Amino acid sequence: MTPYLLLPLFLSALLSLATSQDAAFWNNQAQRTLEEALNLRQNQGIAKNVIFFLGDGMDITTTTAARILRGQMDGETGEEGSLAWDDFPHVALSKTYNTDQQVADSAGTATAFLCGVKAKAGTLGIDDGAERGSCASVAGTEVDSVLVEANRAGKATGLISTARVTHATPAAAYAHSAERDWENNDRVPDEEADEGCIDIARQLVEENNFINLILGGGRVNFLPNTTLDPEYGDENTTGYRTDGLNLIEQWLSVKGSSAQYVWNKTALDRVDLSSTEYLLGLFEPSHMKYEVDRLNDTAGEPSIAEMTELAINMLSSDEDGFFLMVESGRIDHGHHMGVAHKALTDTIAFHEAVAKAIEMTDSDDTLILVTADHGHAFAIGGYASRGNPIFGYDDRNNGSDDKPYLTLSYANGPGGIALADSYINTGARPNHYTSDYDSEGFVQDATVPAISETHGGADVAIYAHGPWSHLFHGTHEQNYIPHVVRYAACYSDSEDNACTRATEEPPMCTGSAHPTVLARCASVILPLISLIFLWISM
Ligand SMILES: *[C@@H]1O[C@H](CO)[C@@H](O)[C@H](O)[C@H]1NC(C)=O
Ligand SMILES: *[C@@H]1O[C@H](CO)[C@@H](O)[C@H](O)[C@H]1NC(C)=O
Ligand SMILES: *[C@@H]1O[C@H](CO)[C@@H](O)[C@H](O)[C@H]1NC(C)=O
Ligand SMILES: *[C@@H]1O[C@H](CO)[C@@H](O)[C@H](O)[C@H]1NC(C)=O
Ligand SMILES: *[C@@H]1O[C@H](CO)[C@@H](O)[C@H](O)[C@H]1NC(C)=O
User: CA 260, 262, 265: angle at the middle one, nearest 5?
Assistant: First the structure.
C-alpha cells in the first residue's frame, strides 16, 4: 500500500481511539456495569447440574494475557475484551497452598477443591494424616470428591481432561492414592503394592465404573506392555502396564452393551448418544495435544469445547441432573515449558468450552464454576502502549542494557537456561528485536535457569455462575469450593443438610429486594390490608 493511502487509515484509527475513550465513553461503560450490578439477584435455587471447569495453572496473569491475545487475533487492541468467565456475576479468590507446601502442586490442590480438605502435595483423595508415597498410611484417611457424592445423589457424572485421565487433577475426583505418579501398576513400587495399594487407572476402572463419561488422554496406563497403541502402533508404542491387564476391555465387559470406547474424533462423532450410557474416550497414549497442535493429530482429536458439548448433550438426558468436571490440563504444561504461546492458546480453547456450557445450560438450575489449582511464575511486565502485541517487546522502554525486553516472562524456567547460555557465549542477553517471539514454540525469558518452570504461590480466582454462586464472595481457602457445590446441589452427604431447605418456603418478606420477593409479599399483605379495611368499614 502506498503511504498516502496509509495516512488516512492511520488518522481514522487514531481518531476512533481518541473519540471512543473520552469521558462519555467510560462513564457510559461504567453506568451499564453499575446497572447490571444493581439488577443482580441472589440465585437461591437448587443446582440440579454442576459443571466444574478447572484451568490447570490458569492464574490471573494467564487469563489477562489470553484475553489480550484473543482480542488481538480478532484485530482489536485486546485489553478491553473478555473471556467467558469475565462475565460471571460472582468472583472470589482461592488460597492454594498445600498442608506441607507454600507453593502448591496439582494433587494436593485437587484434593482440596474436589474433596473439601487441604492435603499434602502429591497426594490424592486422602487427608493430611497420610504420608506421600506410603501406602500403609492411607487407611482411614480417604476423602470422597463431589463427583462421587453426585453419583450417590443419583446424578449422572462425567470427567473430561486434556491431560491423561489418570493425571493429578482428574484423579482426585475418584482415586485415593499416596502418590500421584502411581498412574499404572508399573509405577507403584513393589513394597507399596504389597501393602495393598492399587494404581490410579485400575482404581478408575474397578472402583469407579459408575462414571458415565470419561474423555481425555492416557491410553498407556490402561493397556498392557504387550499391546500396541492403536494410533501410533509400532513396537515402540505400547501400553505401560506390566500386569497384563487390559483395563479398556475390562471396563467394556463390565459396563456391557450400553458402553462405548473410542480413541479418535471420527469414532467419537459416530457415537449414538441415545443408546450410550457409558462412554470412555482416550485420544492419546499420554496427554492430548495442545490446541495449536490438535489439528495435526494423526487420528484426530476433539477440542475441549467439542468434548464439553458432547458431555452436556449426553449427561443432560439424566432427569436427576449431572455433575461434570472439565479440566484444561495443558495450560500448566505450556507454562512449565516456558512457552506462553501454548499456555495462552489452550486458555482460549478453554474459554470456548466455558462459553459453550453457558450457551447450553440455564443459570437457574446449573452452577458453573471456573477456577485454577495454582498459579505459575508468570508475569506481564513493562509499560508497552495500548494494543501492543502481547507476545512482543515493550515498544516504549528498553532494559538498562538498552536492549528491548518482552512483555511476557517467567521468574524461572527453560528461558533462564537460554539466557545463561547467552551470557556465557556473548557476555550479554539476546536482542529480542530479532527474536521469533510469535512462533508456537518460542520460550520466554526467565530469571532463574530451570528445566521446568515452577508453579506460583499467588491466589487464583474462582468465577461462579448460577445457583448459590454468591457464596463465593471473598478470599477463601481452596477447600471451601466443594462445600459450596454440595450445598448448592443438595448432595446428601452435605454436613449442613442443605437438602432440607429445598422443601422450606423462603423467608416471607425479608432478604433481598428482588421483585419476586416483593410480589410474594404483596400477595400476602394486600389481601390482609383489604380484609382489615373490610372489617373496619363493617
Ligand atoms: C523403535 O525404536 C528402535 C530403537 O530406537 C528403532 O531402531 C526402531 O526403528 C523403532 N521402530 C519403529 C517402528 O519406529
Ligand atoms: C512387560 O512386562 C513384563 C513384566 O514386567 C516384562 O517381563 C516384559 O519384558 C515386558 N514386555 C515388554 C514387551 O516390555
Ligand atoms: C500442522 O499442519 C500444517 C499443514 O498441514 C502445517 O503447516 C503445520 O506446520 C503443522 N503444525 C505442526 C505443529 O506440525
Ligand atoms: C478411529 O477408530 C476407529 C475404531 O477403532 C477405527 O476404525 C478408525 O480407523 C479410526 N480412525 C482413524 C482416523 O484413525
Ligand atoms: C532500545 O534500544 C534500541 C537499540 O538496541 C534502540 O534502537 C531503540 O530505539 C531503543 N528503544 C527505546 C524505546 O529506548
Answer: 130
287: annotated binding-site residue? Answer: no
Grid cell for residue 530: 383489604
Instruction: State yes or no: 374 annotated in a binding site.
Output: yes
Residue nearest atom 8 in ligand 3 by C-alpha distance: 296
SS3 content of the chain, % helix, strand, coil (to 5): 40, 15, 45
The rounded distance, in Å, linking the Cα atoms of 36 and 41 is 10
At 159-176, the pLDDT tens digits run 999 999 999 999 999 999
The number of CA neighbours under 13 Å toward the Cβ of 304 is: 33
Q: Are 349 and 196 in contact (CB under 8 A)?
A: no
Burial class of residue 411 in the structure, from the number of CB atoms within 10 Å of its CB (0-12 exposed, 13-18 middle, 19+ buried): middle
Q: Does the beta carbon of 403 lie inside 6 Å of ligand 5?
A: yes
pTM, 2 dp? 0.90
Atom of ligand 3 nearest to the CA of 296: 1
Q: What is the DSSP pairing of strand 49-55 with strand 259-262?
A: unpaired
**Residue 282: all three cell numbers together:** 482416550
pLDDT (tens digit per residue) in 487-537: 999 997 555 555 666 545 444 444 444 444 455 555 556 666 666 666 666
Q: What is the number of the ligand closest to the CA of 267? A: 4
Q: Is 302 helix (H, G, I), strand (E, B) or coil?
A: coil
